[in-house]
Amino acid sequence: MSAPLDSGVRRGAEVRCPACTRFIPSDVACPHCLCGAIAPERYGAARALLKSGVDRFALAARTAALEPAQVEVLVSRYASQWGTALRLIEDARRVESRLLQRGFARDLEDTWAALLPGDEDFLAARLAPFSPLPDSLEYLANKAPDLDLRRLAALAWVHEGTASNEARFTVRSLLHEDGRMAVEAMLALTRWHTVSSLRLSPEERERIRVLALGVLDVPEVGSRAAVAWARVTGQKPTEAISAALHRGLYGIDADVRFECALCLEDAVEVAQALDSPDARTVTFARRTLSGWGSRRLFDRLKKDGDARFVKEVLRDLPSPPPEGALEALLTVSVHTPGALADQLLPFAKRHPFLAWGHEDRQRWARWARAVLRDLPAETALDFFAWAATPTEGVEPEEEDTEAMWCFLEETVHALERAAAKDRIACFRDFAFVRFLHHAGVDEQQLLNAWARAPDSGEALLEALLMFPARREQAGLVGSDSGHAARLLMAVWEGPAQHLLVAPLSRVARQWGPYSGRETLRDAVWQRFQSHPSERGALLTAFAPWRDALWEKQREAEPDALVCFQTWWRVDPQGLYPQAQHLLADAPLDVLPRRLRALWDAAEEAVGTRPRTASLSVSKGAWALLNAVESGDPRFLAELEHFESRLPSFEQRVRTTPSPPEESNIHRDFLDDTHDALRMMRERRARLQADAEHAREREIERRVAESRRRDQERQAEDARRAAEALQAAQALEREQQDVRARVEALRLLTDVLPQVPSRPVDREVLFPGTALPTLLDYARLLKAMQGGADVLQLFQALGLTPATWATQANAWGQAMVGRMELAMRFAELLGARWA
Length: 834
Prior knowledge:
Strand order of the largest sheet: 1-2-3
Shape: flat
Number of strands: 3
Strand content: under 5%
Radius of gyration: 59 Å
Helix content: 55-70%
C-alpha cells in the first residue's frame, strides 16, 4: 500500500477531506461538508467509493467496512494516478517560480485532488507521459498535456517578453477570468517589454484598470498594479496610484524600481538601468532616456558610446534633438571606424541643415572636415546633398555657406579617392544634382578630367545632360539657368575633345527627349558658331540634336546657300541631306547658283564618299530637269555646263572605293543621273520643235478666240430675247391678277340684291369677322355662284380655306337656330343681284 504522503493527503498537521478535498484537522469530521473522519491510510479508497456514488455522510462507515485487500487495491490505484498528477504539479512549480505571484501550483494540486481517481484513458490524455517536461516555456505553452500548465507557461513566457502571438492571445483571454490568474495576466501584459508591442482593445484596458485598482493595496503586487494602471490609462496618476508608484520606486526590487521610474519619468532612476546585466533592459533604458532628451544619457554616450549605443539612442531621439545630443553623437562618430555614417545620415535628414542652430552647424562642419573625405563616396555625397538643400523661407548666412562649402570640398576628396564603380554610382545618384549645382571653378576642372576617364567619363556626361531636368525635380528652378550650359562647356573645353565625342553621342541619343535640354542645346549652338574648327566634332557628339541645331542655323541664316556652305563639310549625315535642303523649294532665279555650289561640293566630296556625292549629284540633276521642264531658256545653259562636268565626275565615282560610312548605300546612282540627263536632252529637243510650231499654234489660237467671241455674242442676243419675252408674259399675268382683284372687290362691295331691304340683312351676328352680317355672307356666296375667282374673293376678305370653313359652319348653325334668318338667306340667294 502506498504511503499517505504519496497521495497528497497531508499538508503539515492537516489532512485532506476525501469528500470536499479541503485540508482539515486530522481525526475529526469535516467542518465544511460534514463528512466523517477517515484514516489517511484509507484516503484513496474513500475517494474511489465517493466516485462510485457513495454518499459523503455514509462514506466513513463504508470505508471502514472495506476488506483490507479491497482497501489495498483502491489505495494503490489512487496513489498511482496521484503520482502521475504529481509530476505535472512539479512542472507547474517550476513554471510558477518565473511568475510574480505564488499559489498556482497549489491550485493545480487542489484541482487534481478533486478529479482523482478518474478514467485511465482520460488521465493518459491529460497527464504528461514523462517527467519532467522540457524546461522551454515555448514548448510548455504550445505542447503541455494540461491546459492549466499551458496557460501558466504562456504567462511566464509573456513575462519574459519573447512570447509568440498565440501565447499573448492566451494571456489576453485570461484577463477576463477571476482571481490570481487574471491579476497575473494583467501584470504580464503591462511589463515594459510587452505593453509597447501590444495593441490592447478598450475593453482590455478597462479590465486592466479595474484589476489594478482591486489589488492596489496588496503589498506584493501593488506597485506593479499601479504601473499597469498608468500604462493602460495614460492619465495623470491619482494620489493612490502615485503613492504606490513611489513605494515601488524606493523598494528593494530593481525590476519594480525600473518599472515605476518609467511611469514617473524619473530619469535618474532609469539611468541606473544603463549598467544592468540584461542587454534588453539597457537598450530600453537608452531608448527611453533618448526620447526624454536626458542629458545624463548624452554624457554617458559621449564618454562610453559605441555603434550600438548610437543606434539605440537615435531610434527614439526627438526632432529637433535636445541639447547635447548632437555633440555626443558627433564625438562618438569621429572616434568610431566608419564614422557611424549609416546611422548619422538618416538622423541628419530628419532636420534640414539650415534649421540647426549656428553652433550646431559649425559642429557639423568640423565633423565633415574630420571624417567626410574618408567615407564612401556615395555616403559623402548624400551628406553634402543634405547640407546643400535649402530650407524654404530661410536665407543662408555667410557662415552657413562656408559650412556647406566644407561638405563640398570634402566630398570632392571622397570622389577623387573613390574607385571607378563607386564614382559612377555617385554620378548617377540624384544627390549629384546638388554637387553640380554648387560646382565652382575648381570642381569644373575636376569634372573636365573625370569626363575624359575611360571608365567613369560616360556616367558623368550622362549626369551633365540630365542636370537641367533633375534640377527642376530638385526644386532648383529659380537658380542660374545657364549654369548647366557652363558646366557642359567647361567639360568640353580643353584638349582631348576626341575622347568625349563617342560617349557624348551615346548619352545624347539615350537622353534626348528630356526636359531642360534647350539650355544645353543653345550652349552647343553658340560653341558651333564661335569655334568653326570644332563644328564637326560637335555635330558628331551631339548627333541627336543635329536637326535642332540645323533649325537654329536656318533661323540665324535665311540664305540656304550660305547654310549649305557652312554645313555640308561637317554634317555627320553627309552631303546628301544638305543637298536636299539646298534644292528644296528653290526659286528658279537662285537655282543656277545653288546647282553650281552643289557641283563644286560633290567634286570635293567624291574623293571620300563617292556614292554620297553621286546621290547628291543625282538629286541636283533631277532638280535641273524640273527647271528645264519649266521652259526657261536660262537652264539650257546650265544643262550644257552640267554636261561638260559630268564625265570627269562619273569617272571619279567609278574609280574611288566606297568607305564603311556608306555601307547603307548599295549603288552609285549614276544611272539615275543619266536618266535625268536623257530626259533633259529630250526636253531640249522638244523645246526646239515647239519653237517651230509656236507661230502655227498662235494662229490657231487667234482663230479659235475669234470663233469663241462670235459664239458668245450670238448666245448673248438669244439670252436678251428670252428675257424680253419672259418680262412681257410676267406683265400680262400681273395685269390679269389686278383685274381679278378689282372684280372681286366690286362683287363684294357694289353688288346688291334686287329685293327690298330688311333689318336682318345688316344685323351684325359675328362681329370682328370677315362676314359679320347676313348680307355679307350672301354676297360672297352669290359671287362664288357667279364664277368669280374664289381665291381673289378670299384674299379681298382676308379669308383662308380654313377660316372660310369655320365661318360657313358658324352661319349654318346660326340659321338652324333662327328660322327667319334661314328664310331671308334663301330669299337673298334666289334674288337677282345688280
